[in-house]
Amino acid sequence: MFYRPEDGHGLPHNPFNAIITPRPIGWISTRSGDGVNNLAPYSFFNGVAYVPPQVMFACTGGKPDQDGVKDSVANIRETGVFCVNVVEYAMREAMNTSSATLPREADEFAHAGVQAAECETIPCARVDGAPAALECRLTRIVTLPGEANTVVFGEVTGIHLRDDCIRDGRFDVTMFQPLGRMGYRDYVRVTDVFEMIRPDD
């Protein structure tokens, strides 16, 4: 099968997201200038550089009460900071609950029953008890072609690692089974890992 996206795929469901899988989920926490905490998952998320450590996430939708962007992007534009929380399998239901479209004055931490903790290097909340959390300062926001496509880049200024996830000097993802996004309504969790040595190592 071959198709041009501009012509449509002819399938019952769009296969694009199912091709680019699994995708890590950035559970992005922000705080508005008015002090309202926000928490939302984004599966267009990844690390983009080691030194200094930098991450990105893409927002592909908007809300009428935030001038065409989602609360996360609006808050980051206002404050210049955000936190990326790693989603473990045990928190899958809370993550899903936090994806609901709520009014800008709503606190998704409270809505999803998630305990908030204060970050160390930025004025923002993080998910208390998450396996890892990356405190970030905004470096740039890029607007992409399309109606509401925005990419947010940030430099990591602080990293929280849950102690029980460190084993033999490594951050061991099998201890918490990170959640990944597949296509459609599907998710995956990491339960097994294997090592490969690169030719130049």
UniProtKB/TrEMBL annotation:
<dbReference type="InterPro" id="IPR012349">
    <property type="entry name" value="Split_barrel_FMN-bd"/>
</dbReference>
<dbReference type="GO" id="GO:0010181">
    <property type="term" value="F:FMN binding"/>
</dbReference>
<feature type="domain" description="Flavin reductase like">
    <location>
        <begin position="18"/>
        <end position="173"/>
    </location>
</feature>
<dbReference type="GO" id="GO:0016646">
    <property type="term" value="F:oxidoreductase activity, acting on the CH-NH group of donors, NAD or NADP as acceptor"/>
</dbReference>
<dbReference type="Pfam" id="PF01613">
    <property type="entry name" value="Flavin_Reduct"/>
</dbReference>
<protein>
    <submittedName>
        <fullName>NADH-FMN oxidoreductase RutF, flavin reductase (DIM6/NTAB) family</fullName>
    </submittedName>
</protein>
<dbReference type="InterPro" id="IPR002563">
    <property type="entry name" value="Flavin_Rdtase-like_dom"/>
</dbReference>
